[in-house]
């Protein structure tokens, strides 16, 4: 059976990217590789909409988050984190380890932090050295208004603006420079159509200055090391050579499609996916939906284990489960990265078949029809 991956990381990898990575390995000091890395550094600036360096770390996205917190802050530094789900919670866990001074703002799952609330926090904590945000909270499929939040932080404080863009970069409109963001992180296995293994971190000028002045608390996951090497289009340690080569291929695809078109495509796929779910009588979870992943309440009487088994075993489809309190309550359909309109028909069609198999009542074809109409009009 054909395997069909609809999870928000790892995401499907295009054949040309896999083929580039299958070529015999080359040495990382070889001019051929240096040329590729230089081009990757340049093209990452295009992706993040920045003129500032974007460093390539050999680790998953979380490694980029850890490098950020450990390189920018020292013991005692106060950092505000917004916890609106699993990944915002991770910011807080990292801050507590590296500075021991975390102001954590909890937000109900499925909602994003409101600017008025962030303004209150900034007022109450004028000594905060940074604010950690999540652009697309993958556990809840919820997008935050980073443009507005970043402008607010810039206006009201000197705190650095740190953005986990791991499922937002390549799905949501994002402008690192114009929005005044200081750090933005993504991971290779999300919107970049790559296997897991790389974290990409964009670093603003003022963040670079702070990092330079900081004593190092990490050796391997150090932005100080990474930035120094980046200035010579190099990496401090042996990079994940095959992944960097694959990333070069993926970035060529991204440039060929055009970043604005990619944002629009994700918005349109997300919209169609939501309409398909609605038409099947399923309720959506988020009140500020991400364009990367659509979380859906499991209909009453539908057990996650049976639904998932029917999706996987009879249809080859893997979607993501809910996390924490929402395990067995919601499921999440990803449309991040290498997806097109027919993929949305496939996943909604597969969901129809799985629901049918477990005897959930609905009108066959209602979801698929809604997806068709979303793309083709009535
Ligand atoms: C996937 C993800 C992470 C963690 O990335 P890993 O690659 O699993 O380390 C962090 N934040 C968000 C929003 C994510 O989607």
What does this structure look like?
- The protein is of the alpha/beta class and 378 residues long.
- The chain folds into two domains: 4-8 and 259-377, Aspartate Aminotransferase, domain 1, CATH 3.90.1150.10; 15-257, 3-Layer(aba) Sandwich (Aspartate Aminotransferase, domain 2), CATH 3.40.640.
- It has helices at 15-22, 31-48, 61-72, 86-98, 115-124, 146-156, 205-213, 223-230, 241-257, 259-279, 304-315, 341-357, 366-376, and strands spanning 4-6, 54-57, 79-83, 102-106, 130-134, 136-137, 142-143, 160-164, 183-187, 199-203, 293-297, 317-321, 330-334.
- The strands form three sheets. Strands 2-10-9-8-5-3-4 form a seven-stranded mixed β-sheet, with helices on both faces.
- The chain is globular and about 65 Å long.
- The structure holds pyridoxal-5'-phosphate.
- Pyridoxal-5'-phosphate binds next to helix 3.
Largest sheet composition: 7 strands, mixed
Average pLDDT value?
97
* Attached small molecules: pyridoxal-5'-phosphate
Q: Strand fraction band?
A: 5-15%
Helix fraction, binned, reads 40-55%
Q: What integer value in Å does the Rg equal?
A: 21 Å
Report how far apart the termini are.
33 Å
Strands in their spatial order, largest beta sheet: 2-10-9-8-5-3-4
**Per CATH, which architecture of the largest domain?**
3-Layer(aba) Sandwich
Counted up, domains total 2
Overall, the morphology is: globular
CATH top level assignment of the largest domain: Alpha Beta
CATH superfamily of the largest domain: Type I PLP-dependent aspartate aminotransferase-like (Major domain)
The secondary structure category is alpha/beta
- Counting DSSP H or I runs of 4 or more residues, the number of helices is 13
Helix and strand element order: EHHEHEHEHEEEHEEEHHHHEHEEHH
Unreliable segments (pLDDT under 50, ≥5 consecutive)?
none
- CATH topology category name of the largest domain: Aspartate Aminotransferase, domain 2
DSSP strand count? 13
């Amino acid at each position: 059976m054909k395997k069909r991956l609809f999870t928000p990381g790892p995401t499907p990898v295009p054949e040309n990217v896999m083929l580039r990575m299958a070529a015999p390995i080359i040495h990382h000091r070889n001019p051929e590789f240096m040329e590729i890395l230089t081009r990757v550094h340049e093209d990452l600036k295009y992706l993040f909409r920045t003129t500032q360096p974007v460093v390539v770390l050999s680790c998953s996205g979380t490694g980029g988050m850890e490098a950020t917190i450990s390189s920018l802050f020292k013991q005692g530094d106060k950092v505000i984190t917004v916890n609106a789900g699993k990944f915002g919670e991770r910011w807080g866990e990292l801050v507590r380890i590296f500075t021991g001074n975390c102001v954590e703002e909890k937000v109900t799952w499925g909602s994003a932090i409101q600017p008025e609330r962030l303004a209150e926090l900034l007022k109450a904590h004028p000594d905060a050295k940074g604010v950690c945000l999540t652009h697309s909270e993958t556990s809840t499929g919820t997008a935050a208004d980073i443009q507005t939040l970043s402008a607010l932080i810039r206006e009201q404080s000197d705190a650095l603006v740190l953005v986990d863009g791991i499922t937002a970069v390549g799905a949501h409109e994002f402008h690192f420079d114009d929005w005044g963001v200081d750090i933005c992180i993504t991971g290779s296995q999300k919107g970049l159509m790559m296997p897991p293994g790389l974290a990409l971190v964009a670093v603003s000028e003022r963040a670079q200055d702070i990092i330079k002045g900081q004593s190092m608390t990490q050796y391997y996951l150090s932005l100080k090391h990474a930035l120094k090497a980046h200035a010579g289009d190099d990496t401090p340690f042996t990079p994940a050579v095959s992944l960097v080569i694959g990333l070069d291929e993926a970035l060529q695809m991204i440039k060929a499609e055009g970043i604005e078109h990619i944002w629009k495509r994700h918005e349109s796929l997300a919209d169609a996916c939501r309409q398909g779910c609605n038409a099947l009588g399923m309720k959506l979870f988020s009140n500020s939906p991400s364009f990367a992943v659509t979380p859906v309440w499991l209909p009453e009487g539908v057990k996650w284990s049976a639904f998932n088994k029917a999706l996987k075993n009879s249809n080859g489809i893997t979607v993501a489960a809910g996390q924490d309190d929402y395990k067995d309550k919601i499921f999440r359909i990803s449309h991040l990265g290498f997806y097109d309109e027919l993929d949305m028909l496939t996943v909604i069609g597969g969901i129809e078949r799985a629901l049918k198999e477990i005897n959930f009542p609905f009108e066959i074809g209602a979801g698929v029809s809604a997806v068709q109409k979303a793309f083709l009009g009535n």
